[in-house]
Design goal:
The protein has 19 helices and 17 strands. With about 425 residues, it is of the alpha/beta class. The strands form six sheets. Strands 1, 2, 3, 4, 7 and 16 form a six-stranded mixed sheet that branches. β10 and β11 form a beta hairpin.
């Protein structure tokens, strides 16, 4: 997902022998005994989301006596799941399902132990067409369905109405421009009161990077096309110029700590006027009792466009019975009646259009101002490509953004370095 996601450094299937030995047996305890097939789920969740997924698992086990799901975090949180699963695959003892960030799927799908669900997805009963396009895209690699969507979000701007009113600045509206955004950020910045117009992570990880892709896409660029980086020229330069403008105006809070916790604490504390973020932030915003609004992302061209960072349930082949049981569980878990319960606790938007029509989801939207803006944004949301080189490209772009934010490089120089690194990553991934 987009929240707090970090860039993995291209972990390969050849995990170290030490890690493989340590993980031997971790994916075990599955199998079929007396007509009951036991499968292993690694969900990587904590707190409320952990409690919710475990309640759902318990309900499935009660209502499906021929399948038993053994659920655990897998010993890691979601941002460490790729490394854990890779090592488990190398050890030959891996789970039946695991929660994996969407940007990691392409590297994981290199393993023939990851199920190909393409044929099943063609069955109307599978409900594939009911899932939002960003969710389908993030679960597909090279045109094949390699996972089940697990979580869906989008990026919009949450703003503090009190700070806008105090500064006499007009609140943002749908269709606003990036020039409007930078101007408002400058006008809302009050150094004497310690107020910033906006904020941006400056760690160089994926949390730094995903905010810039809608800007690049809006200008006709892309992460990559036909095996070559496609964020050069006007698209990448104008996006980095916007970042440079925020830095030059000193209107951006630059968060150099991993996870963006400081950035969000500044916003929640009432000392930041605008923050691009996802729906997961709204419960904390409401808890902080901020008078807030939500608007779509700004645009250069006038066309609405945003990013979504879906995560996936990846299903592994532990034999015919366990694979079939894992697919049955994943289909049940992501069906509308279960999906709506997961969405409310995990900060996810509905995985399926039919979920959004559930009374429980309508109730959630009615009680959460601004949530519908994130749902509506899914109609114009794009996802990062599921390509093997993406982690390396992300790292290069992240370093470029940080160098511009900190004034260590001009946008042109930073972009040139990122493009060179991206070309190398794409060439080596072929």
């Amino acid at each position: 997902m987009l929240r707090g996601e970090t860039t993995r450094r291209g972990v390969l299937l050849g995990a170290t022998a030490a890690a493989a030995t340590a993980l031997a047996g971790c994916g075990g305890t599955g199998g079929t005994v007396h007509g009951v097939t036991t499968i292993v789920l690694w969900h990587g969740q904590n707190d409320v989301a952990k409690a919710t997924v475990e309640r759902l698992v318990a309900e499935f086990n009660r209502t499906h006596p021929h399948i038993r799901v053994r659920a655990s975090s897998g010993g890691v949180l979601a941002d460490g799941m790729l490394q854990k699963v890779m090592a488990a695959l190398a050890a030959g003892s891996y789970p039946d399902l695991a929660y994996v960030f969407g940007s990691n799927l392409a590297n994981l799908a290199r393993s023939d132990k990851v199920l190909d669900l393409t044929e099943q997805a063609r069955d109307p009963a599978f409900g594939w067409a009911d899932r939002w396009p960003p969710a389908r895209a993030a679960a597909s690699v090279d045109g094949r369905v390699r996972a089940m969507p697990a979580l869906l979000d989008s990026l919009c701007v949450v703003y503090n109405k009190k700070l806008f009113a105090r500064s006499g600045v007009e609140p943002p509206r749908p269709g606003w421009s990036w020039a409007d955004f930078t101007t408002a950020a400058r006008q809302l910045t009050d150094r004497h009161r310690g107020v910033f117009g906006t904020g941006w992570p400056a760690v160089g990880d994926e949390d730094t990077v995903w905010r810039i892709w809608p800007m690049v896409w809006d200008l006709g660029g892309d992460v990559a096309r036909h095996g070559r980086p496609a964020f050069g020229g006007t698209s990448g330069l104008r996006a980095l110029d916007t970042v440079a403008r925020l830095a030059a105006d000193r209107s951006v809070y630059i968060d150099t700590q991993t996870g963006s916790d400081q950035l969000y604490q500044v916003f929640l504390g009432g000392s930041m006027a605008m923050v691009p973020t996802g729906p997961w932030q709204l419960p904390q915003v409401r808890e902080a009792k901020l008078d807030y609004g939500v608007v779509p992302m700004p645009t250069y061209t006038g066309r609405p466009l945003t990013i979504s960072g879906p995560d996936n349930w990846v299903i592994f082949d532990n034999g015919r019975d366990r694979a079939a049981a894992a697919v049955e569980f994943a289909r049940w878990l992501t069906a509308p009646k279960q999906d709506v319960r997961w969405d409310a606790s995990a900060g996810s938007l509905p995985l399926r259009r039919s979920t959004a029509r559930q009374p429980a989801w309508r109730h959630t939207v009615a009680g959460t101002p601004g949530l519908q803006v994130f749902v509506d944004a899914l109609t114009t949301a794009r996802v990062r490509p599921t390509i093997r080189a993406y982690p390396q490209i992300s790292r290069a772009v992240g370093e470029a953004i940080v160098s511009v934010l900190l004034g260590h490089a001009t946008p042109d120089a930073a972009l040139s370095g990122a493009l060179a690194a991206a070309r190398t990553a794409l060439a080596s991934s072929l």
